[in-house]
Amino acid sequence: MKHGWLKWASFLCLAALAQAEEGKWTPQQVLQLILTNHHCLFGIRQEHSRPDRDLITNGFLARSREEELRGSTTWVAIPRKFTDVTKEVEAAGAAAGSGDLERAKAADAKQKALIADCEKTPEARCRVAAFDGGLQYVLVETMELTDVRLVYAPPRAVGDYGGETDNFRWPRHAGDFAIARAYKDGQPYRPEFYFPISQAGVKPGDFVMVLGYPGRTMRALTAEEMADQRDYLYKLREELYGQWIGILEKVDAEGAITVAATLKSLNNSHTNAQGQLAALARGRLIDKQKAADDRVMQWAAGRPAFAAAVEAKKNLEKLAAERRRTATRDYLFQAIQPGPLALKHATALVRLAAERAKPDAARDADYMEREWTRLRAAMERDQKSFYRPADEALFTCYVEHALNLGEEERIAAIDKVFQPDSIARTVHLLYEATRVTDGSERLKMFQESTEQLRARRDPMLDLAFLLEPELRAWQTAAKTHDGAVARLRPEWRRAVIAYAGKPVAPDANSTLRVSFAHVQGYAPRDAVFYTPQSTLAGMLEKNTGEEPFALPEKIVEAARGVDAAKIPIDFLANADTTGGNSGSPVVNGRGELVGANFDRVWENVANDFGYNPEIARNISVDVRFLLWLLKDVEKADGLLQELGVKR
Q1: pLDDT 10s digits, 79-137
Q2: pLDDT reading at 2 higher than 50
Q3: Are strands 69-70 and 147-153 parallel, antiparallel or unpaired?
Q4: What does the DSSP assignment read for 624-638?
Q5: Where does 565-642 have alpha helices with state H?
Q6: Are the beta carbons of 101 and 480 closer than 8 angstroms?
Q7: Residue ranges of the domains in the chain?
Q8: pTM to 2 decimal places
Q9: What is the fold of 38-75+146-216+511-642?
């Protein structure tokens, strides 16, 4: 994970505050930190759960250091340095000539070289982030802590109270937080700076800041590109993930814990896709983007200095049209990663073996030697999420979609192995014969060459070998497209920014950002207004004793002795957040922690495409609810003392 916190630890550099609440501003402009929260640590609980120790349902509290639970694939990245490398990357691309693929390869090679040089610094983990499609490139240096241990997570009925019924909705009453401890060299990591906890909390109108790693927004896209995202990402995701969720929800009790993390991830992505589609239609966001594009085009057309921008916009539209020809097939290739584990692992093993035979600098970035430890850990960790009946059903569903592709989008490998009238049987035979799904055997395959993998005559690996040329061709086409975008987008964005006449925050790209906000409610529809804070009283009112509103008895019992209306749970603010902001710390103007971001409201899901101040509301869990749980429910005096809170 790219965000994690211990002891509410964070790194903060003071800077002047921007006026606008819209935007995810870069750390060069504002500040730096590290952080995470409850559902971000779901995987650790699932990793250590078993039928007789269900940490997902019951929660977890370590009352000593020895009881803490280490996550095998969890890490914390602490930002240390940001360097503008735009000139270096642009020069490498320009020297490669005019071909988009050659430019992309040259720019990629330069970024690898910059990263390799950066990682000569002890403990450094580096990446090059592109802003606005290539208008700027920044080398980000972090220190990575790979020893992260779970300290506290409330029961699922608290941390995920309301489940999918309340997901992306307000009023919300979820205690979506957890506590972890990061270790360095076997000892608890002690950050140079951390956010002190505000026991006073927030009230309507208070200023707050959300600091974190928003994953991706799409506001720099043209209207045509946005339409592609709607039609070939969110519509297809809603359909495929919806079917996969239906499969996993029918899993028997034996497999329920095993598939829990996968089901939670799919549910969240599926609900998000539904929200994106609904909000895109409701807000007519693509029509509005087209109007905005047209205004910039008209303005730029009368200015010779922006002639290149006009041409770039036209070419971006042509690229969008070209991608539509194979967009459904391309989506299915993307869906291998979150899909059935057998196919995911087989394709990864085949690719790893091929890449290992190359010099490290010539390998795909995801398969360079610096990634091997993480890849191996993920393959080992995935065994905890593998339940064969469910995986077979997911694979069968995937093949059904592939066999329904149009003539121009056929996947030859799937067509060769499967027939429409015997998909489930063929899938079953593959699983019967393969060793890829055996965790220990898979780790042996991790070390093997292409020749050794072929010699196994494993049918799942054989399918992956058949798929490999098509996956390579797809990725080459994607790289060519990215090279063209890196050439065209900066020209168009220069015109957009010049037309705006003011600073424009770049799209989110999983780099550190800050959003400025105020605690406030909103009107979701006519004659309705939501106030910005929920309380324990509302949580108790929702409690039916049945999922997803079944509070643990210890919560109900503890609530009997307090004024529940005075114990805050969640609050709204008008921060500009997106996927990836989960766990982002929310601090007040004095740099004190007041909460942890975990969601957006339903009406605001499509803010990935544009910021609307009327409905732009993020949802954060109030730190005072955590303190109440630790004090009155868990009696966790030692943990409260570590957090700097007196009982």
Answers
A1: 899 999 999 999 999 998 879 999 999 999 999 999 999 999 999 999 999 999 999 99
A2: no
A3: antiparallel
A4: HHHHHIIIIIS--HH
A5: 623-628, 637-642
A6: yes
A7: 38-75+146-216+511-642, 223-497
A8: 0.91
A9: Thrombin, subunit H (2.40.10)
